[in-house]
Amino acid sequence: MRDPAAAAHATDPAAADAKLVVDGVSKWFRTPRAEVHALDNISINVAEGEVVCLVGASGCGKTTLLDIMSGLTRPDSGRVLTDGQLVEGPGRQRLVMFQESALFPWLDAFGNVMFGLKLRPDLTNRERKRIAHDFLDLVGLKKFAHAHVHELSGGMKQRVALARALAPDPQVLLMDEPFAALDAMTRDQLYEDIQAIWRDSRKTIVFVTHNVREAVCLGDRVLLLSPSPGRIAQEFHIPLKRPRDINSVELAGHASRIAAALKGSPPGTVSE
Amino acid sequence: MKRFAVVTLFFGALLGLWQLAVMSGRWSPVLLPSPLAVTEFLWGSILDGSMQEAVWVTMRRLVVGYAIGVVIGLPVGLLTSSWQLLDDTVGSLALGLQTLPSVCWVPLALLWFGQTEGAMLFVVVMGTVGSVIIATNHGARTIPPIYARAARTMGSEGLHQWVRVILPASLPFLVSGMKQGWAFAWRSLMAAEIFVTILTGFGLGHLLHYGRELNAMDQVIGTMVVIVIIGLAADRIVFSPWERFLHRRWGTSAGNS
Lengths: 272, 257
Fold this sequence. Notes:
CATH topology of chain B: MetI-like fold
Strand order of the largest sheet of chain A: 6-7-8-3-9-10
Strand content of chain B: under 5%
CATH architecture of the largest domain in chain A: 3-Layer(aba) Sandwich
Oligomer: heterodimer
Helix content of chain B: over 70%
CATH superfamily of the largest domain in chain A: P-loop containing nucleotide triphosphate hydrolases
Largest sheet of chain B: none
CATH class of chain B: Mainly Alpha
Low-confidence stretches of chain B: none
Number of helices of chain A: 8
Largest sheet of chain A: 6 strands, mixed
CATH architecture of chain B: Orthogonal Bundle
Order of helices and strands of chain B: HHHHHHHHHH
Radius of gyration of chain B: 22 Å
Largest interface: A-B, 27 and 20 residues
């Protein structure tokens, strides 16, 4: 369970010890027919080492919000800070793990993990190689370092993607429904792995999902996003001990509470 | 081994049919020489060195013209793929020029350059460049944008992003662009050699041309056989291995040989 102070900061944009601050972010999308208000004045503080899950129906703007956190998309108003620094573009302090496999097919698994490391001038080549091997080992793919991307299964691909995102040692890890395309058994295994990795690294993580159970399993806090325009409707603290079992009764209890709150919010499709 | 046997059988049967047609006597041997006569011509031209000379002259023109076409076409194709204004202008021009059969460049080239190597080269380059631009442009547009997004989050930008992400991601399309360009360069050069009579080099196209002038059907058919073999060899030796490698890497298909 996280310290309660972190919760108090959730609505205070000036929180000094927050690793990631989203401060009054709004976003509109202009289409030829209409202007869509995607995000409305969203403020979130994520403390160092905290795992925050954003849950909402498809189209509620959660991926847009994650893009803004990463710096890939500019907000129309508001700002994002990491360690008090204004985010003005993408950078390796905030690495993203995407929904679909964004691995580079022209590189093998090892080459993919090395890609981000090579962009760190502070490392020597020997250090880079050692780190890449360490992280492939960490995600259980030591033997597959030189496998081509298409030779890996869906779960293995996302493991490589996880290693690639962790290896350059980002301040914040942003995950955009990274397990949505995987089968349930592979996912359950990855929940355990993610928790083990988090236990050792205490990374600050923002995890976007439409799967309430997944959010409860991984998050210290679960933020519920309501659609059109995207707003933070509700916040839940998950005081369960780690490691958590996604199939446990306790976890299901929390999940059903959040699922009920989701149903109360405007309609959308959300898996339980 | 079985495939080799089938291929041998197929071409053997083709030769057999040809020989049967000759033996039927329905066509004059002047218009339809026997396979043996064509082989004799080829053998003779190899012995006196005129065939090697013609192949060498033609290949030199082809490689130079093709290289220029690719060096211009690849970057322009990549640029038009990422810059709409350039695609609307230069891209449309390339598309228009590509629909123009390359032999249509011959009169213009002759007037501009006269009966020179320059005219020959000009026709090949003009025939190549448009198709390379279009194939590359089309290919680069189908690169999943997520590669660039992922690279940007890892701190890749500018030149690094072009060299390490866009370029390798477009490799499969660059190869198809280059293959397309090769086919067009080959066709353009043959057109140019048949229509531009020059004395600085006697290529395969000229062998064809003078075969017609001299009513030497064995020379015409023999030269055509050589042209087909060169086209086939370029595909099998240069492009197929490259495509197979990319297919293996990308896992797109088992690869065709």
